[in-house]
Amino acid sequence: QINDDVFCECVSLQEIHLPNTVTSIGRDGFAFCQSLEEVVMPEALTWLGNRAFYDATGLKKVTLNSTLNKIEFAAFSNCTGLTEIHIPASVTDIDTYAFNGCSNLERLTVEDGSEAYYSENNCLIDRENKAILLACNDSVIPDDGSVERIYDRAFSNCKNLKAVILNDGLKTINGNAFY
């Protein structure tokens, strides 16, 4: 495991090669590693702790592994260099603030077969709660009644968002949804 704060504030760290036996990355494990550009998660990884890569603004590419289960609070928050996120089918729990502040996202996808999440129109959607968890600047809220709720900060920092069309089936818009 990578314990809490191990590489926190290593602002000059440019690359990491994690052994395939690493099962978890703890709180603030790589937070504020602003020169880090790419991360490939080890095959054994099942859990990303709170703020694991928080404010790693140079992070451009993250490859999440097929055994990952949980992405904790603010794990990738403020990773403004990220343009694409692909969620493996194995992920069953993503905190609503996990990707908060990733303002340059262009593409959100979820692997086929996920029981917890799916993506549509560049929206990351929680199946059980029929809620948008995360969106991009060009996301379109599905209008087929499959979305009833927009989570906190789902569209936050979407600085180039040009229009929002709310569908008839929408019941709840949480606080700061469009912050």
What do these coordinates show?
With about 180 residues, the chain is an all-beta fold. It has strands spanning about 25, 40, 45-50, 60-65, 70, 85, 95, 105-110, 115-120, 125, 130-135, 150, 170-175. The strands form 4 sheets. It has a 5-stranded mixed sheet, with no helix packed on it. A 4-stranded parallel sheet has the order 1-3-5-7, with no helix packed on it. A two-stranded parallel ribbon has the order 2-4. A hairpin with a 4-residue loop joins β10 (about 125) and β11.
How much β-strand is present in the residues? 15-25%
Q: Name the overall outline.
A: globular
The class by helix and strand makeup works out as mainly beta
Distance between the termini: 35 Å
Helix content: under 10%
